[in-house]
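subagent[fold] <- orchestrator: predict structure for attached chain, return tokens only, no commentary.
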Amino acid sequence: MNDAEFTVDVNKYGDMLFRLAYSCTGNMSVCDDIVQETFIKYYRLGKDFEREESKKAWLIRVTINCCHNHTKFWWHSRRSELSENEPVKEYSDNDELLSLREALQKLRPIYREVIHLYYYEGFTAGQIAGILHLSTSAITSRLQRGREMLKKYLE
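subagent[fold] -> orchestrator:
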């Protein structure tokens, strides 16, 4: 992989990975760091993937792992959010979207990940299973449970 190909991939997948990181963490201030860490790992890997789908799946998996690593840090539970300084972009105009965003953040990460990949990125349950190295039935169960929890939170 040369620098031009890397730049194309950053432009192609950067926004998607940022949305995924935000969906997993709920914190815009760390999303840039997570996406940057993902692309650093990708650049260091230097691998040319045979299929575009494999590359995308690898980037998604690494982004999710980086999100999990972020939440494991000891200081994560001991810090306070400065949410008033954090801009809320597309949600500020629509109360329903704001309610949905808040409900999504209440979900455990394992449900938030699959819901994001299924509804926002358009992956099938089988594709998500391949990305997360789980069975398709595990993904469909997580989707179902996540939907039920969202419904409960939104009522």
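orchestrator: received. Logging for downstream: Residues 84-92 have pLDDT under 50 and may be disordered. Helices lie at 3-25, 28-45, 52-72, 95-106, 109-120, 125-132, 136-154.
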